[in-house]
Amino acid sequence: MLSPLDSIPTFEFLNWPEADKLVHGTSFAILGMLSVSSLGESQQRFILILIIWSVYAMMVEIFQFYIPGRSFEILDILADVIGAIVGYFAFIQFNNIKQGNL
Predict the structure, then answer these.
(1) Total-model pTM
(2) 42 — phi, psi (to 5°)?
(3) Which of 7, 35, 60, 64 could form a disulfide with 70 if both were Cys (CB 3.0 to 4.6 A apart)?
(4) What are phi and psi of 15, to 5 degrees?
């Protein structure tokens, strides 16, 4: 799911040409949640998680540049990074609610 395929997946059920950005964001939100869950919450860890998933997103897009039928898209990287950030903070917020800290 997080590696480049040899064809671009289609999302006709969403009836939106850029629906793949939603898939990118959701995938990386899950990764952001898993990262904060395993590494913990701090400013340094947030920066580390952001760097790791930003580099990973860039690498995936660079690899796609060399696969016939695929392309490099800056907006995919942006969707990935935003997804990781949202996932990070969503997990923290969920934990705070769960522990009664809000």
Answers:
(1) 0.81
(2) -165, 165
(3) 64
(4) 50, 45
Closest CA to 56 of 14, 34, 96: 34
* Degrees to nearest 5, angle at CA 93 with 87 and 95: 100
pLDDT, tens only, 40-98: 889 999 999 999 999 999 999 999 888 888 889 999 999 999 999 999 999 999 998 98
Assigned token pair, 89? 């903070």
What pLDDT score does 6 carry?
56
Could you tell me the two tokens for 78?
């942006």
| DSSP conformation class of 70 | -
User: What tokens appear for 6 in the block?
Assistant: 């040899």
The candidate with the shortest Cα–Cα distance to 83, out of 40, 13, 20, is 20
